[in-house]
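To the wet lab folks,

You asked to see what we're planning to order before we commit. Fair enough. Below is the target structure as tokens, and below that is the sequence we designed to fit it. If anything looks off to you, flag it before the synthesis order goes out.
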């Protein structure tokens, strides 16, 4: 009797919690097919080079904390990481200086305003700026370890490489395009300096920040970075420790409250997941202990978040019942 039963049972699929390979594959395929032809949104064009990126790039990748990789669509086209980089520079500053320093020297409360708001800095007189929007991110670049600009930049590039599990590179045309035109970010850095909340030369800190935003990534890189956060700071693909579990613990709440700028609340309401977007069209989200997911699609909505990436990730999260606030009563 027992033997007969065993014989008819299908081989057990690999699982993360209750997530089977088949469930994940089906969710990604459905999300991809549902949104691939959507024509909403517009590439960022305030950084001129971003307007030239192919708006049809669309890829989704999910990587589990046990290192299984699931891909759908275009996972090789590179886009600039833009604001998604803010997460990894923040994590490195947390790792170097601890959570109290990040709270005291930068601030962690959401501004609720646009990512490059000068009013947000002015209202708080430079206090309570957030590392996941431009003022706090430029402050984070100024705080990162390194005696000079080159050492700070190397530190930033290294942490991105470790999260991605491979050597990344800078998209120089995007860097040059933004560096020649970022008076607003320079104004933010100088205003912070005036409030004693800038910890390195403001022009150089803005330059490092601009370079970090121009790092090239594809959907798989972003998903690996997200999966490293989901896995307590150990990259589940390379198996190498990148940051401590405590650093991740202090990074994810800021992503949850400020990762999608002034639309962070709407995002969290719909997905329940800490996430980060960038104006290059990348978006990553973290399901702690389970998986990292990312999508790339350049056209953005009014808040500056990728339209398709938001929809695709939300669809997968709902399909996999991965919202951590969804609890089945005992
Ligand atoms: N480099 C961009 C800027 O500073 C990043 C903004 C973003 O992705 N939201 O404007």
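Sequence we intend to order:
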């Amino acid at each position: 009797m027992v033997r007969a039963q065993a014989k008819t049972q299908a081989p057990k699929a690999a699982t993360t919690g209750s997530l089977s390979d088949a469930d994940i594959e089906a969710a990604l395929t459905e999300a991809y097919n549902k949104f691939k032809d959507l024509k909403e949104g517009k590439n960022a064009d305030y950084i001129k080079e971003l307007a030239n990126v192919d708006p049809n790039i669309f890829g989704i990748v999910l990587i589990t904390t046990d290192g299984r990789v699931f891909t759908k669509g275009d996972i090789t086209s590179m886009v600039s990481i833009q604001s998604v980089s803010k997460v990894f520079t923040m994590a490195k500053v947390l790792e170097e200086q601890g959570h109290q320093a990040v709270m005291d020297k930068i601030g962690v409360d959401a501004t609720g305003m646009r990512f490059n708001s000068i009013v947000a800095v002015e209202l708080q007189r430079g206090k309570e700026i957030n590392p996941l929007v431009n003022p706090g991110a430029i402050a984070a670049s100024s705080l990162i370890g390194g005696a000079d600009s080159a050492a700070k930049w190397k530190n930033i590039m290294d942490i991105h490489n470790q999260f991605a599990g491979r050597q990344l590179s800078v998209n120089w045309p995007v860097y040059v395009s933004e560096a020649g035109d970022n008076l607003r970010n320079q104004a933010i850095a100088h205003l912070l300096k005036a409030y004693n909340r800038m910890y390195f030369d403001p022009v150089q800190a803005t330059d490092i920040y601009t370079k970090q935003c121009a790092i090239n990534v594809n959907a798989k890189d972003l998903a690996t970075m997200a999966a490293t956060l989901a896995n307590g700071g150990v990259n589940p693909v390379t198996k190498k420790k990148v940051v401590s579990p405590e650093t991740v613990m202090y990074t994810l709440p800021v992503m949850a409250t400020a990762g999608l700028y002034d639309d962070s609340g709407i995002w969290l309401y719909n997905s329940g997941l800490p996430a980060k977007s960038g104006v290059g069209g990348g978006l990553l989200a973290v399901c702690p202990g389970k998986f990292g997911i990312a999508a790339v699609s350049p056209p953005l909505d009014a808040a500056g978040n990728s339209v398709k990436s938001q929809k695709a990730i939300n669809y997968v999260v709902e399909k996999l019942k991965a919202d951590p606030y969804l609890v089945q009563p005992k």
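Structural context that might help your review: Residues 82-83, 115-116, 134, 178, 185, 213, 278-279, 304 surround glutamine (CB under 6 Å). The radius of gyration is 20 Å.

Thanks,
Computational group
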